[in-house]
Specification:
It is a single chain. By secondary structure, the protein is of the alpha+beta class. The protein folds into two domains: 263 residues, Fic-like fold (Orthogonal Bundle), CATH 1.10.3290.10; 176 residues, no CATH class. It is built from 15 helices and eleven strands. The strands form three sheets. Strands 5, 6, 7, 8, 9, 10 and 11 form a seven-stranded antiparallel β-sheet that branches. A hairpin with a 2-residue loop joins strand 7 and strand 8. Helix 5 runs parallel beside helix 9, helix 8 crosses helix 11 and helix 13 runs parallel beside helix 15. It is globular and about 75 Å long.
């Protein structure tokens, strides 16, 4: 695939309006949450988001690897060796690169707050900041021998580069002699996209920058940072492409190479939803705002007093009504699925047993199984608020000597009453156990939810609009679970 001039923003193939509307609705809930939060809470939440991005952006490029436990510690506690050592440690060189990337993101966030325009000069500054601690990059000489070449920070490439696509074809990037002209064209066309949705605009800029590939190394990290610039200027949260999304991300970029930008837009919209949910989380410990146990206690007391003064009925009551309506629909749907599955398996085992159990606030049973729902939330990528209970349902199917547990849950997201909810599911196949027990038998197969196995809801949502997304998640995971059940039966 030969290189070509930077293309303008096209008409998108495939529907993206629904997922962009979901992101915008959650953004509204997040902005409302910010009005009830302290400046310190916002700053700490934003620092955590930028730390996540700074760590994961290098992992995506396989520049280094960081254990997941170390990652979580660095995100929560700060980018220091002391914090990393609590979970196994990290090399000084890797930490130096991550810190450079974090500092570059702080520089970018300041630029977004200051309303700085995107320019070729800014892109070069950003590359210089991101790669400050990277001295070399892997290269190949004219004889095909690998070596480490010095990396020139903020300077355009002097040699052609390309990549082999999954189908084996060669994708050329812009030749060195055309980089300046194409970067000028990129900036000019970017300014013509002002009327586009910010997520669409960010995806277009990201992909077209990658097509130019103006630097010797670090192009992906700069592209992902430029995505943040677009979103932060429009008061969205900084999305993170993490290691779990690497394959989906590369596939979406390759589809954009083929002319279809919609998959990348949908991916970025899902990641923006995850980012907004992440920023709804309250800091676990306000170490940066206070010193010593008493100082931390006072900081938490101040935060909790502010929470108690909040007037949240404008979000809480509509969120509860939304969850109640969707829960009723989910239970009807589970019963329909349960009946169909019983009919299908009865020919194999006349004693096939199907049971549907459920609970919702204010039923005391909605407060049970906290470990299960906390685990589901963690796997789906959000912090749950379980204090008032969960809207949950379970299909239990016993066929011969195997049992399928399929759980659905609508869980409040974030700290306090944000008005945000997440619907998610999990499944497992195991020997038979008690249908209503939260102590499930050891599974022989299980499916923990991912961010893609969830639907983020906000108090202003219309049930009819979001229902197709919920049934899609149920059908996808339940189908996989029933397939596993069938395989276990022999």
């Amino acid at each position: 695939m030969r290189w070509r001039d930077v293309d303008p923003l096209p008409e998108l193939n495939g529907g993206v309006a629904a997922i962009l509307a979901s992101a915008d609705a959650l953004k509204g809930a997040w902005e409302d949450w910010l009005t009830h939060s302290s400046e310190e809470e916002f700053r700490q939440s934003r620092r955590r988001s930028l730390r996540r991005h700074a760590i994961e952006t290098g992992i995506i490029e396989r520049l280094y690897d960081v254990d997941w436990g170390v990652t979580l510690a660095l995100v929560a506690g700060g980018l220091t060796q002391e914090v990393a050592a609590r979970e196994g440690g990290i090399s000084d060189d890797t930490l130096a690169v991550i810190r450079s990337q974090y500092d570059a993101l702080e520089f970018l966030a300041d630029a977004a707050r200051g309303g700085r325009d995107l320019s070729v000069h800014f892109v070069r500054e950003l590359h210089q900041a991101i790669t400050r601690s990277q001295r070399t990059y892997p290269a190949t000489d004219s004889l095909g021998r690998a070596f480490h070449a010095p990396l020139r920070h903020g300077e355009w490439k002097t040699h052609a580069n390309h990549v082999v696509r999954p189908d084996g074809t060669l994708l050329e990037y812009t030749p060195p002699e055309h980089v300046q002209a194409q970067m000028d064209r990129l900036i000019d066309l970017y300014r013509e996209t002002e009327s586009a949705h910010p997520v669409v605009r960010a995806a277009w800029l990201h992909h077209r920058f990658i097509c130019v590939h103006p630097f010797e190394d670090g192009n992906g990290r700069v592209a992902r940072a430029l995505t943040l610039l677009v979103l932060l200027r429009e008061n969205y949260a900084p999305l993170v492409v993490d290691r779990s999304q690497r394959t989906r991300y590369i596939d979406a970029l390759d589809q954009a190479n083929g002319g279809d930008l919609a998959p990348l837009v949908r991916l970025f919209a899902r990641l923006e939803i995850s980012a907004l949910r992440f920023e709804l989380e309250a800091p676990a410990v306000l170490r940066e705002a206070a010193s010593g146990a008493a100082g931390v206690a006072r900081a938490h007391a101040d935060r909790l007093r502010a929470r108690l003064r909040e007037k949240t009925s404008d979000r809480t009551a509509p969120a509860v009504r939304l969850a109640d309506v969707l829960q009723a629909r989910i239970l009807r749907y589970l019963r329909q699925q349960g009946d169909a599955l019983r009919d299908a398996f009865t020919s194999v085992d006349p004693k096939t047993h199907v049971n549907i159990t459920h609970a919702q606030p204010p039923d005391p049973r909605s407060l049970l199984s906290r470990d299960l729902f906390r685990g589901m939330a963690q796997s789906a990528g959000f912090r749950p608020n379980l204090t008032e209970g969960v809207w949950w349902g379970r299909i239990y199917i016993q066929v011969l000597d195997c049992a399928l547990y399929f759980d659905t849950a609508i869980i409040r997201a974030g700290s306090g009453d944000t008005g945000a909810l997440v619907f998610t599911v999990s499944a497992s196949v195991s020997p038979p156990g008690e249908p209503e027990s939260d102590q499930l038998p050891e599974p022989v197969w299980e499916c923990d939810p991912t961010p893609d196995d969830s639907v983020t809801l906000v108090f202003s949502d219309v049930p009819d609009t979001r229902w197709p997304e919920i049934t899609e998640v149920i059908d996808q995971v339940l189908t996989a679970a029933v397939d596993q059940l069938g395989q276990q039966l022999g």
